[in-house]
Amino acid sequence: MTIFDRLAQALRLRALGATQGSNVWRAPRLSVCGQRKPSTVTTVILWGVLVASFLAQPAAAVTTFKIATLSPEGTSWMKLLRGAAKNIDARTDGEVKFKFYPGGVMGDDKAVLRKLRIGQLHGAALTSGGVMQPYPDIVLYNLPLLFRTLEEVDYVRSKMDSKLMRGLREKGFVGFGLAELGFAYPMMREAATSVTEFQRRRVWAPDNDPGALKAFSAFGVTPIPLPLADVLAGLQTGLIDTIASPPIGAIALQWHNQVGYAIDLPLIYVYGLFAIADRQFNKLSPEQQEIVTAELTTAVAAVDASSRKDHLSALRALETQGIEWLQPVTAEREEWFRLAETANDGLLKNDYVSTPMYLEMMQHLRDFRAVADDADTN
After folding, report:
1. 164 half-sphere exposure, CB direction, 13 A CA radius
2. In degrees rounded to 5, what are phi and psi of residue 100?
3. What is the reported pTM?
4. What is the chain's Cα-based Rg?
5. Extended beta strands in 189-245, E state
6. Over the range 251-289, which residues count as b (16 or more CB within 10 Å of their CB) and which as e?
7. pLDDT, tens digit (0-9, with 9 covering 90-100), for 245-297
8. What is the pLDDT of residues 141-194, one digit of tens each?
9. Alpha-carbon distance 308 to 180, whole Å?
10. 377 CB contacts (<8 Å, ≥6 apart)?
11. Which of 302, 286, 280, 271 is nearest to 165 (CA)?
């Protein structure tokens, strides 16, 4: 029985008592400071007014975040993000909700950024290149042949990821961490290990990724830009015959069936991130912000760890699928790294990334390599 039902019953009983005698239930009358309390009917009416007034108060505001991702439903990204959203909903009593648009239905990174600027979307899982326009330093780890091993990646990221997130916040986005896709390796139809041979290939680059375009230009290659959806057809028709992709991407998109060779060179470290526009994030209370940050940071970290395992598994899978891994000879490898170093110096002079962040990163790399070299010597 609701409070309104009880109030109605009390009124009916009071009315019956007025006509049928005193055996009907009556609310007790109390005195306050020696004065007789108002009649039962008056009391019931007053309580009804108070309850109705309370229930008429506006409900707590609900903040909904509209989030775009390129990841299809069912992937690790989507499972973990939906799990985080469920936890946030529960911990905020339904006052913070997330609505996801998976599978690229909101367009590529460029289209998503435009929708973020006008408020049509509030956040997204994007590639690092997709966030370069508002915050160039986010592509710091994308520089060609910057890292040689995943151990180097882990060391540098442990020192600098938090700084990248703070820089992103200064540009109007709240970031919750980076999630890797792994190293992109050159893959091709015909064997090639030298820069000269590579230059004769019809090389694909993502049409909205300036980092990839600049990486290839470092080796004297003019790539053919195509959206992801057109790469498989491009390989099948011969429009392109060479790609650079993380193994997990090549397998997921069936590109590996169109190539026979891969060069064992970690050409580019590929990663993405999850970010929310701060104007929407700032609508939350401090307590809600803390909850959202904790849940999403945990989810992105889980995606990052899962992606590392997937990357290593995909490397092994490519071998079983018949991809032949090619090892450049010493002179060829040295030329690849020399050209990459020259290109990175040029990018720095052109403010592709900020000088302080670049120099700090390179110092961390030197520190790690010095320790690694000492360990190898001993």
Report:
1. 27
2. -100, 145
3. 0.80
4. 31
5. 204-206, 224-226, 242-245
6. beeebbebbebbbebbbbbbbbbbbbbbebbeebeeebe
7. 999 999 989 999 999 999 999 999 999 999 999 999 999 999 999 999 999 99
8. 999 999 999 999 999 999 999 999 999 999 999 999 999 999 999 999 999 999
9. 7
10. none
11. 271
pLDDT 10s digits, 291-310: 999 999 999 999 999 999 99
Pairing of strands 324-326, 261-263: parallel
Interval 209-245: pLDDT, tens: 776 777 788 899 989 999 888 999 999 999 999 999 9
Q: Structural domains in the chain?
A: 3-55 (no CATH), 63-377 (3.40.190.170)
CA dihedral over 69, 73, 79, 82, signed as positive or negative:
positive
Residue 313 tokens, joined? 């598994």
Q: What pLDDT sits at residue 151?
A: 96
As a whole number of angstroms, the distance between CA 89 and CA 97 comes to 6
Tokens standing for residue 201 = 């290939």
